[in-house]
Amino acid sequence: MASGNELPPPAAAATDEFLIWRVFDVPRSVLFAMWMNPGHLARWWGPRDFTSPVCEMDARAGGRYRIVMRSPEGVDLPLKGEFLEVEAPGRLVMTIDCSEHPTEWHDLINPGRDRSVPPALVMVQTVTFEEQAGRTRMTIRTRFDSATIRDAAVRVGMNEGWSQSLDRLDATIAEEASPTADRELVFARVFSARREVVFRAWTEPDQVVQWWGPRGFTTTTEVMEVRPGGVWKHTMHGPDGTDYPNTTRYIEVVRPERLVYTNSGEKVGGTGVTFRSTVLFEEQADGRTKVTMRMVFPSRAARDTVIREYGAEEGAFQMMDRLAAHLGGVR
Question: Is the Cβ–Cβ distance between 275 and 165 less than 8 Å?
């Protein structure tokens, strides 16, 4: 029997439902906000090492949303839906339409489907937030068309994916408690290359110019001294001919684990930006490398300016794609 300070487990799942729940040490208003704010949702939605380069929502009953999850290998898994109920801060009901997922995914979920028609899979997800003594049990119930489809989704990793996503949610909540959380940008990607190879690609002048910047950009390096106190002076050239001079000053260089540096840059004739970056290179058990880049700006307004005027978020995703392609040709 649960004590007065414990939340009992939720009712068992129906035969056509997937059920997962977790207790978080925060009020339910905090958890509810993590679902309703697309900037927050994009940081934790999806399994470990996935990103969400597209996360758009009209968070009200009848409103629509669209999320594009991207796997560490660069495969996109789009989903969309409608909010059926939004009762802050206690309950959400939403449809989840996975019809735009890759054909191979649908073949795994429903191997007997009629392949002469476009694939379709729409679920209804109910999320409840129950608070007691400052802690909140979040319960997620996903209803499928049948128990067979539910079982197939579990077989392809639905339980593991949601468990990892909730781990990321817990970490995101902890990051939000950081004094710099409201002025940070954080990006992560797993690359199919050893850590030493990825680190060299990030720090060798002849390599970094091959992938640095968003799609369509090129980079010219004047000097690159990757050592504490060293400077990297480079100019990024946009596809429209606009130049973006930058000066990077290295604070820490721990090969092949860590880089810390400040960056000052500008768009010629535009607004200048400054920030401090920490880049971590984490070796994975399978020989791949996870790279996490955390950029801290002087203020929230400065961070938001970089997002709005320079497209920093999408630019970072594109740059990571370019690095992945570059590493595919490095031996």
Answer: no
**Whole-angstrom Cα distance, residue 208 to residue 219?**
8
- Check if 17-177 and 182-327 are the same fold: yes
Domain range 182-327, CATH architecture: 2-Layer Sandwich (3.30)
Break the chain into its structural domains and give their ranges: 17-177, 182-327
Tokens for 211, please give them.
């992938």
Average pLDDT over residues 51-56: 90
Question: Phi/psi of residue 275, each to 5°?
Answer: -165, 165
- Based on the number of CB atoms within 10 Å of its own CB, is 291 exposed (0-12), middle (13-18) or buried (19 or more)? buried
pLDDT at 2 over 80: no
Give me the pLDDT at residue 6, please.
61
- How far does Cα 91 stand from its chain's mean position? 24
- CATH architecture of the domain with residue range 17-177: 2-Layer Sandwich (3.30)
Rounded CA gap, 65 and 37, in Å?
Answer: 11
Distance CA 295, CA 240 (A): 26
Structure tokens at 280: 């971590």
Q: Which one has a higher pLDDT value, 169 or 53? A: 169
The residue count for the chain = 331
Alpha carbons 185 and 298: distance in angstroms, whole number: 12
Report the predicted TM-score, pTM, of the whole model to 2 decimal places. Answer: 0.58
